[in-house]
Amino acid sequence: MTAHVLLIEDEPNIAEAIRFILTRDGCRVSTHGGGVDAVAAVHAARPDLLILDLMLPGVSGLDILATLRADPATEALPVLMLTAKGQDRDREAAERAGASRFMSKPFSNAEIIASVRDLVAR
Amino acid sequence: MPFNILVLACLAYVIVLFLVAFMVERRSMAGALPWLRSPLVYTLSLSIYCTAWTFYGAVGYAARSGLEFLTIYLGPTLVFVGWWWVLRKLVRIGRQQRVTSIADLISSRYGKSNLLGVIVTVIAVVAATPYIALQLQSVTLSFGVFASAPPEGWVVEGNDSTSLWVACGLALFTILFGTRNLDAKEQHTGVVTAIAVEAVVKLVALLAVGIFVVWGLADGPADIFARIDASRIATWDLQPGRWAGLMFLSAAAVICLPRMFQVLVVENADERHLATASWAFPLYLFAMSLFVVPIAVVGLQMMPEGSNPDLFVLTLPLSQGQGGLAMLAFLGGFSSATSMVIVAAIALATMVSNHIVMPLWLRLRPAQAVAGAAVSGDVRRVVLLARRFSIAGVLGLGYAYYRLSGGSSSLASIGLISFVGVAQILPAMMGGIFWRGATRVGAALGLTIGFAVWAYTLFLPSFGPDAVIAAGVFAEGPFGLHWLRPRALFGVEGLDPLLHATFWSLVLNATAFCIGSILTFPGPVERMQGAAFVNVFDAGAAGPQGWAGGKAEAEDLLIMAQRILGEEAALALFEAEARMQGKAGYLPDATPGFVEGLERRLAGSVGAATAHAMISQLAGRVAVTVEDLMAVANETAQIMEYSQQLEAQREELTRTARQLREVNEKLTQLSVQKDAFLSQISHELRTPMTSIRAFSEILMEGVPPEMAGQYARIVHDEAIRLTRLLDDLLDLSVLENGSVQLNLGLTNLQQLLDRAVQAASHTRPEREFTLHRNPAAENMFIRTDGDRLAQVFINLISNARKYCDAARPELRIVVRHRGGRVMVDVIDNGSGIPKASQALVFEKFARLTDQTRAGGAGLGLAICREVMGSLGGTIGYLPGQGGAAFRVTLPLRLEKAA
């Protein structure tokens, strides 16, 4: 069964890279570039895994995550959090907000594939 | 006994007394000495009532007038036993009002009238003068006894030089004793203790002589009684009028004598001591009078005819070769005289300096007094000086009286003149504490008339006919007015002169006092003080200091306490009290107990008088005495100086604290900004690096060629984006450091704008903009750094190209020239920048949205701002132009900064 991965990332080049890597690995990948309508996108796509950028235009990824975790439909959704800030306190904040895993940019492709496989397998 | 040894003994005795006083003062300052404040010491100090008159004179009195001398003891005994409640009221008032002297009491009662203070002071000084003369006379006589060669010379002639030396010695002694320091409370613990010691010495001396007489010279009590029966004392018959008069006089004197008032009221440490004194003092008087008659009888029998009976106490032991006993007796008499003179002089000097010298000094030198108050201790010095001169003056008067009156009258008659004099204060005093209707006018009238009558009928005649009052006046009255003869006023003849004077002076005094009081109305302060005095026990029920009626606010008290005690100590004191009252915070209820405690605490810092005056003010009391004001005049200067220093220090501290706070805020802000900046840099650097890394890995792993080209282009674009970011950061860093090198030169603005438009066209080249420019207005030469200025316009035009969201984008560039400045507005027709963000756009990384992919890091406008700053111009957002609008202002001719 192919896993459905939703990628919410405002940088088009990064989104393209991840889409390519995961598609090549056998996932079905949808991408979404906005921040404000991200939650609605998640509900519409009903993915097996969400890859969420921390800094989105107009809204914080942490807020989106908190909204998702508060909703019974999405509270158990595996979420891989990405951030370009990479500071420890961002990691802590993401974990508090309920991120399943946290990765800082830049990442190696192998890393992200391993994380996605791991999270989907759970 | 050699005269020299006698003098040495006196000196040694005085030194011992001085040491006692000194030690006690030191110890009482260091810590409480409970026994010093005991009723015993208080009672013994009251014995200054028994002066040399009592010591020597009572025997002489008994020898001359039989048992009449007893009246002098019976009067005080009646007061202490029967009128105890009057004394208690006086003591309570004295403590509550912080009375410093009898003049202060009268002045305070009648509305702080200094006139009354002056009158009472004058009466007291004049009346005390014969009394002090009496002490001089007795000491001189006793010296004379030892000086004249035994055995033939018991008849003593007045020794002028001796009396002068005695007067000087006593003055010096008193000054040393009483005015070593200015005591705000006017209590002299050391002096009181020394006087208690003297009281013991004189009692022991008199008892020793008495015992020697009864069991040494006679054969015990039975023999003495037999001798009394045989002597002329037994034949003496009682004169009821004179007895009653004398008892009344001595009763009045024990309250009104300045020195008695001093020890009885002013030096009183505890009201309960009065209870002990009420039986112990009469007991002391009884012991003092026990052997008077035996000594007189035996003296009359054994001493040669014509010996001065006033000196039997001394001459009897001497004639029997009892040198040691005579010496003891001499020291007893010396004690009696010195203790009286010391206390009287201190009391009188206090009155003179407080009610006459200080008011005069303050009035005569108002400017200097105010200016001089800055010199700490100036007033204090004046007061001490005034007191010292007053003491010398009082003793000088005593000496003058002694010389004038010839020093020949018997001791007892001199003492009685004084008694009648001070008794004039009685009506005003008693009326003052029992009759609320008593007024200042009444008191002044009564005192003046009583004093005048006393002087005319008793005091002046005491100098003898023709000394002050001509003999003719005695016989015929002044100006032939027969009814005004000094010894027979209104034609009342045949009366004893003493009784005559007593009767008329007090009757006229009391009448004038009553009529004056009834006919006049008291002033407001007078009325308040009258109520406070008459109803002293009602107020006292609420609190010993009577602050109950006050309306002191805890906050005011705290403010004042802080100024005196310091903030920390005051807050601690108030907090502790508030906690005790079960309240939170720093403001307890201003209960009388608390206010009293606070006053004591403040007194420890600034002196009781100031503390009392300050609290009085806060408590709404008008009870400020001359003493208070005087102390305040001095102490305020110190406090003001001190508090000014404190104030200055406090301001400086506040200023420093504010500066520190500001610096700290700035640092915190900078730290937050730095964190945010680093976080932003990290984000801006990592984002392109993420794409570069991901796509390079994809390319390394091998992808179809058509994809490879696209991915390689992404890697390339992101690398350029990284480079640009680093360039911008460096640019900004240089600009912000102010280390930018300007390349000034003349530039044509039109050409410069052309260049900028051309350069910006690389940004989103697919968009077609309509440009509106006015070449005529643009055509000017400006002196600036052209490249830097072009950078600003490139940024602005690029931004417009990037962010203008109009369907048909337009850009207007408007140039104006005003004064020496050029304004260039760059306006597009997009939706503009929301008001809330307008102030933010010039901050670093303030990119408002990331929806465009132009790749700016949000540093452009920040750089523009820095550039314009270094070009001596500004850049700002221009609201209300129907789109995003920026105005660049710069000087037409930029000169290099000097």
Automatic annotation (TrEMBL), chain A:
A biological-process GO annotation: phosphorelay signal transduction system
UniProt keywords, alphabetically: Phosphoprotein
Gene3D superfamilies: 3.40.50.2300
SUPFAM superfamilies reported in the protein's UniProt record: CheY-like
The Response regulatory domain, residue ranges: 4-120
Modification type 4-aspartylphosphate: residues: D53
A Pfam family assignment: Response_reg
PROSITE patterns linked to this entry: RESPONSE_REGULATORY
Protein name: Response regulator
Species: Fertoeibacter niger
Taxonomy of the source species: Bacteria, Pseudomonadati, Pseudomonadota, Alphaproteobacteria, Rhodobacterales
TrEMBL record, chain B:
Protein's membrane topology: Multi-pass membrane protein
Compartments, record wording: Membrane
Transmembrane segments: 6-24, 40-63, 69-87, 115-134, 162-179, 191-218, 243-266, 278-299, 341-362, 382-402, 414-435, 441-460, 467-483, 503-521
EC number(s) from the headed UniProt entry: 2.7.13.3
Main location: membrane
SUPFAM superfamilies recorded: ATPase domain of HSP90 chaperone/DNA topoisomerase II/histidine kinase, Homodimeric domain of signal transducing histidine kinase
Chain coiled-coil ranges: 632-673
Family: Belongs to the sodium:solute symporter (SSF) (TC 2.A.21) family.
Protein name: histidine kinase
